[in-house]
Amino acid sequence: MRTRLLPLLIVLMAGVLLALGFPLAASLAASEQQRVVVDRLDDAARFAALAQFVSVSSPSTDERRTTLNGELASYHDVYGIRAGIFYRDDRAMAAAPEDWVVPYEGEGRRAFKEALLGRRSHDPPQVWPWQGHARLTIASPVVRDGDVVAVVVTDSPTGQLRSRILRGWLLIFAGEAAAMLVAVGAAFRLTGWVLKPVRVLDSVTHDIATGRMNSRVAATGGPPELRRLALSFNEMADNVEDALEQQRAFVADASHQLRNPLAALLLRIELLAMELPEGNEEIASVRTEGKRLSQVLDDLLDLALAEHAAAELRLVDVGAVAAERVASWRPVANDKGVLLTGECGAVTGWADPVALSSALDAVIDNALKFTPPGEEVTVTVSVPPGGAGVEVVVADQGPGLTEDELVRIGDRFWRSGRHQNIKGSGLGLSITRVLLTAGGGGLAFAPNEPHGLRVTVTVPRDAPGERGGRGQGFGER
C-alpha cells in the first residue's frame, strides 16, 4: 500500500514546490533586472542633465560637449556600456564609442521612440539566463524648455545580470531540493505511521485465519480511527473465539456423552445376536453401522481436541518422521498388494511431531485405502526452490477426484459419492488440516498424472518468531 500512497504524496508535494518555485524564480529575475534598469536610468538622467547645457549653435567649440564626450568615454571604458546622446533626427550629440549610432530597429529603436515622447524606459523585456547575446537598452529624454531635444541611450551587456539570476535560481533550486528531501522524509514517516497499523492488522488477521485464534492487535499507536478499528477487531475476534470454543465444547461433550449409550446399545446387540442363528444378515448390518457410528464419535472427539489443543512446535527432521510413518504403514500396504515407497531425505522444519505424524498417518491411510492392488503410493520429502516450507507429497494411483470433488475434499463429513462403500467417516482429512494449520502448515490436493491424487503436506522452515508474532501492536514491534 505504501508503494501506491507514497508516490501520490511525493507528486503532490513536488507540484506544490514547483508551483511556488516558478513564480519565485520569475520574481527574482524581474527584481535583478529592475535593479539594473534603475541604475541605468540614474546614469541616463545624469548624462541628460549634462546634455541640457550643450550648445546647439556652436557644437564644435562647446566645452560642455567635450566634457560630455569624456564622461561617456570613461563610462564605456569602465563598465563596457555603450552610451550616447542623439538628437531627434538621430544625429549624435556625443557617443562612446564614437562610431556608435542609435539603433534603427529592435528594442533600441522602440526605447528611442518612447523617449522622444517624453517617457523613460521603465519596463524593458525580461532578460533570461539562456539568452546569451541579449542586451539591455535604456532610453531617457533630454528636456529643454519643456521640449524633448535629444535622447540618452545606454546599451548594456547582460552577462553579469544573467549570472546573478542563474545563481539566484540555483539557490532556489537547492532550497526546493532540500525542502523536497524533507518532505519525502516526512512522507515516509507519515505513511509508515498511518500504514503500520494496517500491516499489523493484516498480519494478525492472517494469524487468525490460519488457526492462531489468540492473536490480537495492541492498539497503542496510529491514527485514532485505526485504533478504534483495532479495538473493534479485537472484540470481533473475542466473539468469534468464544463461538468456536462453544462449538468445540459442544462437539466434545456430545461425542463423549454418546459413547456410553452407544456402547450399551452395541452390547445389547451382541446379546441379541447370541439368541439368533449364526450369520444373520440384519445383525451383521447393525454391527457394521454401530461400529461406523462409534468411529464417527471417536473422530469427532479427535477433531474437537485438535481444534482446542495448542501446537507445540519444535525443529524436527521432517524426512525422518515421514520415513518412520512409511515404515509403519508398509505392512498394511503389503497386505493389500500396494507398493509403498518413500524418498525421505534429511530436511528440517518447524512442526509438532505428534501432529505431523498424525497428519501423515491420515494422508497415507487415505492413499492406501483408495489405491487398488498392484499400484504404487509414493511419499516424497522436498524443499521447493524459493519456498518457505518443507513439502511432503503423498501421491497415489487410485481413481482420483474430479475438479468439483477437489474443491470439497477436506470438508467435514464429505465423501465422494463413488466411494461411499469404503470404510471412513469423512473427518480424517479435516482433522489433518486442523492439526497442520495450528502449526502454521497446510494441506493441498491436486490430480496425480496419469491418474490418482497428490496430497501435499506443508510445514514451515522458519521459527514461529520469524514468521510474525502474536499480539502485535500499532507501535514499534
TrEMBL record:
Keywords from the named record: ATP-binding, Cell membrane, Hydrolase, Kinase, Magnesium, Manganese, Membrane, Nucleotide-binding, Phosphoprotein, Protein phosphatase, Stress response, Transferase, Transmembrane, Transmembrane helix, Two-component regulatory system, Virulence
Intracellular or extracellular location(s): Cell membrane
Source superkingdom: Bacteria
EC code: 2.7.13.3
Cofactor or coenzyme needed: Mg(2+); Mn(2+)
UniProt cross-references to SUPFAM superfamilies, sorted A to Z: ATPase domain of HSP90 chaperone/DNA topoisomerase II/histidine kinase, HAMP domain-like, Homodimeric domain of signal transducing histidine kinase
Xref: InterPro entries: 2C_sensor_his_kinase (IPR050980), HAMP_dom (IPR003660), HATPase_C_sf (IPR036890), HATPase_dom (IPR003594), His_kinase_dom (IPR005467), HisK_dim/P_dom (IPR003661), HisK_dim/P_sf (IPR036097), Sig_transdc_His_kin-like_C (IPR004358)
SMART domains: HAMP (SM00304), HATPase_c (SM00387), HisKA (SM00388)
Membrane topology: Multi-pass membrane protein
PANTHER family: SENSOR PROTEIN CREC
Protein name (record): Signal transduction histidine-protein kinase/phosphatase MprB
Lineage of the organism: Bacteria, Bacillati, Actinomycetota, Actinomycetes, Kitasatosporales
